[in-house]
Design a protein that fits this description.
The chain contains no helices and 9 strands. The protein is an all-beta fold. Strands 1-3-5-8-9-7 form a 6-stranded mixed sheet, with no helix packed on it. The protein has a 3-stranded parallel sheet with strand order 2-4-6, with no helix packed on it. The radius of gyration is 13 Å and the shape is globular.
Length: 106
């Protein structure tokens, strides 16, 4: 798994270097209310359809997953933000530039 101490993070090739890297602990604990995970367009980063990445909110700072371009869809029944500390959320690529977000969301 990866451990993120960052406030803003853009997904990329290193996130899928091995199967164990599909679990990301977001442990930023600074003054901001959110850690932002940016999901880039397929032209920038193109993991296979079916790829899933899991994020754990390991601190008191919520994790928000956002598209980093106008062509990226992050589909969710509710919000794109984790519910609280120790929440686990995941995104799954379901089509080109289309992801489904699920888990412990607000």
């Amino acid at each position: 798994w990866n451990s993120l101490p960052y406030l803003i993070y853009s997904l990329g090739f290193s996130d899928l270097a091995s199967a164990s890297n599909n679990y990301v602990r977001c442990k930023y604990n600074g003054p901001s209310g959110y850690v932002t995970i940016n999901v880039p367009e397929n032209a920038v980063w193109s993991p296979a359809i079916g790829t899933e990445i899991v994020f754990e909110q390991a601190s008191g700072v919520n994790v928000t997953v956002l598209p980093s371009g106008p062509n990226v869809a992050i589909n969710s029944a509710y919000s794109r933000t984790s519910a609280g500390q120790h929440s686990v959320i995941s995104i799954k690529k379901v089509d080109v530039n289309s992801w489904t977000l699920s888990g412990d969301i607000q």
